[in-house]
Here is the input.
Amino acid sequence: MAFEYKTRFFLDKAHYIECFQASAKPLSGIQPYYKALALFIAGLIVSSISQGNEQGHLAIFIIMLGVVEALSVRFRQTWWLWRQLISKAANSEVELTITEQNLEINGRYQTQTLAWQALSEMVETEQGFVLMFKINQQLGKHYLTKSCLSEQAIAFVAAQLPIDKQSS
Here is the structure.
């Protein structure tokens, strides 16, 4: 008998927070701020070269771009969550179908079919699975929450690839 599981869930704030916390890599040190620092320094250089002419506006723009970049790194989760919540897919219902051949995600604005054969890596967390699919030489990351899955569906997904256990 072929395995098939269907469920529905909403792309709400709680779902997006869970996705981010499970799939985002933690940042540390100054390295994430290199781009912001480079923009800030470039703005200072343009400012010192311009000395009061029209390029002064360009210098201020570049410096402010560096400030915005630094804020986007510092408040990364809030920034990412805000971008998701203003998207047209936010708060919409999604239908998830899991079969022996693929994982199908049907939303109001997008439909994706991801073949299990394209699955290259899987990390199980307490709340879900981070799935990495290689499609057309590109690696795509998808998060699948356990909150909408039955025990049978969780076991089926877990059996698709040896899992690297992640402590979360």
Remarks:
- The chain has five helices and eight strands.
